[in-house]
Inverse folding.
């Protein structure tokens, strides 16, 4: 898997740097070419001599450490690599990466690299729990960096908790897994529906719902961060979406959303329907504003097309179709029924009974049910973090396809 792969191993100044010579050795044993780049602080924890010996290449730290009037080109090195892993990544270097600071050779390389970058934060428990750390990890993920979660256990400070760098064998497994699975969404075409639909009664009034479109947008950003091309069919929301890699198709009604989705579906590999589509629409729409004096005795409604069910009927074997289910009672069995009825590969269930889940809020709590009968539940998280959990589940589905 790693034979012939060119890998940059970036080391920043944390105690866990002592694990990296072994990681480099394991990568070399797998047949990878390894270039170690370390910050000057990292040299306090592990020597460049050790790393140069195990990698078989001089270690780079500065732009000008050759002493012969030439310099180390971060641009050339960034083009050379197939992947880069930064381990351990300190809170300080992670903060720099999240704002694009380039005050040392390694950070410059991060900005120049065209290859995927994996980052393995490692720090003390309290630093790891700090809200800025959580924010920076999320930001790096949204920027397309691949997160290697730290392990929980005894830390160098004597505290116990999350923040410990994984063992070299585990890091090697993460890198191998990344080459196998992590690139799986690159170049894939994705269709996402998001937001509410507004069903007009007259030119100013409508029947709608409280969906904010946030979950769908978080998913669109996460897919795009993983190198996928996203078509986002978006109902009327106040969110502004102007991001590279995401093509927005604005719609208002369920009928418009149906046409936009069915048209796009033929060309995509994966479709995720997060929209809260109105199930009914007025039979008659007044062409002029209905005057109060005239009154409205009743509004006759007719059903809207079920977009997801139509896609389920048209679905090819090489396509993945994911739906959402917002339930208030008998949640699991209702979601399971929807999964079967609409011919889905996976359904994401959220219950309105769970505090912090549902419309308008920035958080969500989900359970994922798959066609093969398996399910996994996730704790309450921000919608941005949930999006990456949903993506991993979809990556697993692709991995299991014939
Ligand atoms: N959906 C859709 N088109 C519709 C209604 C729903 O594409 N006309 C999709 C939603 O985007 C979601 C899934 O179907 O992915 C389930 O939506 P939900 O409202 O939970 O279920 P319904 O099928 O509308 O059933 P009910 O409202 O009776 O629970």
């Amino acid at each position: 898997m790693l034979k012939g792969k060119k890998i940059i191993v970036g080391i920043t100044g944390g105690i866990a740097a002592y694990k990296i010579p072994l990681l480099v050795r394991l990568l070399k044993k797998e047949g990878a070419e390894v270039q170690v780049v370390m910050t000057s602080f990292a040299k306090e924890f592990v020597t460049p001599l050790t790393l140069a010996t195990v990698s078989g290449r001089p270690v780079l730290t500065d732009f000008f450490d050759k002493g012969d009037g030439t310099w180390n080109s971060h641009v050339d090195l960034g083009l050379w690599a197939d992947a880069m892993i930064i381990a351990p990544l300190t809170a300080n270097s992670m903060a720099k990466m999240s704002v694009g600071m380039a005050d040392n050779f390694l950070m410059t390389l991060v900005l120049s690299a065209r290859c995927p970058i994996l980052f393995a934060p490692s720090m003390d428990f309290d630093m790891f729990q700090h809200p800025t750390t959580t924010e920076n990890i999320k930001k790096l993920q949204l920027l397309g960096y691949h997160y290697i979660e730290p392990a929980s256990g005894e830390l160098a400070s004597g505290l116990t908790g999350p923040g410990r760098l994984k063992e070299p064998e585990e890091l090697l497994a993460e890198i191998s897994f990344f080459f196998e699975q992590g690139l799986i969404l690159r170049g894939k075409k994705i269709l996402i529906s998001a937001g509410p639909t507004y069903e007009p009664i007259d030119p100013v009034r409508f029947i709608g719902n409280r969906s904010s479109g946030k979950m769908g947008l978080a998913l669109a950003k996460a897919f795009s961060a993983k190198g996928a091309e996203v078509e986002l069919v978006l109902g009327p929301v106040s969110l502004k979406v102007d991001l590279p890699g995401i093509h927005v198709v604005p719609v208002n009604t369920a009928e418009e959303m149906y046409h936009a989705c069915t048209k796009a579906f033929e060309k995509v590999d994966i479709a995720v329907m997060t929209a809260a589509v109105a199930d009914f629409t007025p039979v008659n729409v007044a062409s002029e504003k209905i005057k109060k004096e005239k009154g409205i005795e009743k509004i006759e409604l007719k059903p809207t097309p079920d977009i997801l069910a139509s896609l389920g009927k048209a679905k090819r074997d090489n396509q993945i179709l994911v739906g959402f289910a917002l339930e208030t009672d008998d949640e699991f069995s209702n979601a399971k029924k929807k999964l079967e009825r609409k011919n889905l590969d996976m359904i994401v269930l959220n219950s309105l009974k769970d505090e912090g889940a549902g419309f308008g809020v920035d958080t969500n709590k989900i359970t994922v049910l798959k066609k093969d009968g398996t399910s996994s539940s996730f704790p309450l998280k921000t919608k941005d973090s949930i999006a990456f959990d949903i993506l991993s589940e979809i990556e697993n589905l692709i991995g299991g396809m014939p």
In short: The pocket of cytidine-5'-triphosphate is lined by residues 193, 254, 273, 275, 277, 279, 304, 306-308, 323-326, 338 (CB under 6 Å). The two ends are 20 Å apart (CA to CA). Residues 383-399 form the longest helix (17 residues). The chain has two domains: 6-183, 186-399.
